[in-house]
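2024-03-11 09:14:02 INFO receiving multi-entity request
2024-03-11 09:14:02 INFO entity count = two
2024-03-11 09:14:03 INFO echoing inputs for audit
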Amino acid sequence: MKKVLVVDDEPDILKVISFRLKKAGYEVLTAGDGKAALDLIAVNKPDLILLDLRMPVLSGEEVCVTLKASDELKTIPVILLTASSGGKIADKAKELRADDSMVKPFEAEILLEKVRKIIGGAV
Amino acid sequence: MGQLTKGAVVLSFLKPPPTDIKALIKTNSIGFTKELPGLDGKPAAYLSINIESRELVAHKLFSRHAITVFFGFLISVLVFMLVFLTVLVSIPLSRISQVLKTGQLMSSPAMEKDAGEFGDIWRLISRFFEQKKELLSEITERKTVEEKLRTSEARLSTILKSIGDGVIATDNKGYVIFINNVAQRLIGYGAEAAAGKDLRTIFNIVDELTGKKTDNPIDRALQEGVISGFANHTVLISKDGTRYSIDDSAAPIRDEKGNITGAVLIFRDITERRRKEEINRRLAAIVQSSDDAIVGKTLDGVITDWNKGAEKIYGYSEKEIKGKLIFILSPEGRKNEVRDLTERIVKGEKIEHFETVRVRKDGRHIDVSLTMSPIYNASGDIVGASAIGRDITERKIMEGKLVATAKEWEVTFDSISDLISIHDRDSKLLRVNKAYADFFKVKPEEITGKYCYSIVHGTKEPCIDCPHQYTVKTKKPARLEYFDSRFNAYLEASTSPIFDKNNEVVGTVHIIKDITERKKAEQKLKEAAELKSHFTSMVSHELRTPLTAIKESISIVADGTAGVLNEEQKDFLGMSKKNVDRLARLINDVLDYQKLESGKLEFHIQDNDMNEIIRETAAAMSAVAKEKGLEIILNLDSKLPLVKCDRDKIVQVLSNLISNALKFTEKGGITVVSEKKDNIVELKVKDTGIGIKNEDLPRLFRAFEQLAQGKERKTGSTGLGLAISKEIIDKHRGKIWAESEFGKGTVFHVILPVIERRI
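2024-03-11 09:21:47 INFO inference complete, emitting structure
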């Protein structure tokens, strides 16, 4: 079963996304801030990370930079999430070498499609 | 000697006696020829005497037989004859012979009284000798006269040669027979070259003024016998081309009978005199034609000279003022002035541009500027003064006006509250107004020549972005805003070029304004705008996060993922979802608009196929259209060039236009058209909807307009869509507008420029 790590400081967001992913058949890990995410990744490496950019303690951006700087972790695909609108997020994704990005609020189906595209179906 | 009846005496002055006489003498005649020498020793005349002797020969043949008787008789006869002959023939003959031989006439009373032939001969000879004597004395006399004549001629020739004028004498045909040295020099021909030449060919004269050849004066002398004199303004052109001004005169030469035998031409080189005359004439003309009054006067003040300018300025004619005193021109109270000036002149002083007042004949006072100089006589004594007066009344009036204008300008200049300064090209200060002097605490008279930066910035060099230098270099106005810590003020310096008539920058005008208040206001505005921008983006972010959670929760429930719902529940949750979407769009639009307005929205310009954009957008909208039972028809120009644009932004505009069209159309369809026109691409979105009232068209692209207008449109949009679309199209340097017929439909036009690639 493919493992997806969802990182967001909003528990409600974490809950709805986790629900969707689980329904779609993925194993879901969650973290409430960047530091917690990195700690978790160190012990339980996911197949894909859904990473919110604006977070306390350690921002999504910093997490992404850390991951991409690590030989071991840089291969983990990352989809950035943000509540800030506009074209900037796509540029940010490119800059951070993330695989894709998604603006909140989103259509759940589109998010799932992006995930499927990168790591395939749940099974 | 009665037989001797025939004889001849021939006296010839010219040539030896004729041959026949000579022949006679040789044959049977007694005779001889005698040359009579002249004074010069050469034969002057010839005297031939011939006596025929045929009678004598006849007597020789008389009676041979009576010789004896006859002899005695004969002898006696012979003796008688001898005596007779001796007395009657021999003696006279010898006398004659002696006279003829010696050529000296002796006095012989016997011969004088002789009534015979010999007496005749003697008297003849005597008369001849007397005549000869007379002749000789006549010849001698003539020689003396000739000698005298020669001497006089030589003297005359010498006189003519040494005369200062040119003298040429001609014969009656006009051919040169005499030419003196001066004439030779002036016409350029030597005596030999000129001799025998036609005077008209070598004496080449033209009129000084017209340059045309003039008649030779000797023609009149020769033809009319009159003395033609001194034709004025004649120029003699010498053989080498030198031009001499001459005076000439020709007179005929007559012999004692009064016949014209020639002509004499006398001429004189007056070039120098003419030149002086010309100078004098011109000086006089200059003086006369001068607009200034030129007046000459004695030291006593008696007016001696008065030109036309003086007549014009003072009103008196030359005639009426000459001899009057100069004081006539001085107004009351200024009579002493002339005396003082004259005293200075006597000292040899020159008075220049002395401005005073004079009174005209008509009593009018005029302002004049006088320049006075002494007049010297030939021995260098000051005998008078010349005064040049110029009427400066007009100038004085003009000066007054100028002063008034300058004053007016100065007052204006100093009344302006902005700081104004005038500079030369090097930025040196020429002039500043009062505000400038007050602000920089300088005295206007002290700043001249100082560099502007030393006053304005307090520096030793101009600042890097000096607008003065920019203006001088580009001939364009320039502007600089800066903060001056010395005054704790924001200042704005604007510089404008000052051009000369050749459009060259000769200096600049600087205007410095204190813009501190404006700057503060601007700063506040800027801060407010930034705050607004930050606030908006923060608010939208903060709104989106809960919205995401709400939207997802509702979706999960509405989908039935979290359990099966009844129809009523589905209906209400669907409504919730729709409104959440609307809220999300509203937030996006507000944010987009905010970004566009503050210029923060970035554009990614690339070459795009407009038809492809249209097809994709239409495809995305087709589901909504189908729901409403409408069709989106595409009418695309296949030859459309690529257009430089931001693909996502154009999609946003097209989506907005199509969704609007769908929104307001219940029947019919939507047509999207693309078309190339010249160097633009035009897109049209046509619908068959309710249309827009004419008066509403201008408000269409204003933000939040729809919210205000409301009623007639079915809601669902923020009212920002068209405002955002307009911003986007404007940024592409395109145009967007709408045409509509209320109740029949609307056409939205979008024009985008095509920038052709240059190969």
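2024-03-11 09:21:48 INFO post-check: The CA atoms of residues 24 and 122 of chain A lie 7 Å apart.
2024-03-11 09:21:48 INFO post-check: The first strand of chain A starts at residue 3 and ends at 7.
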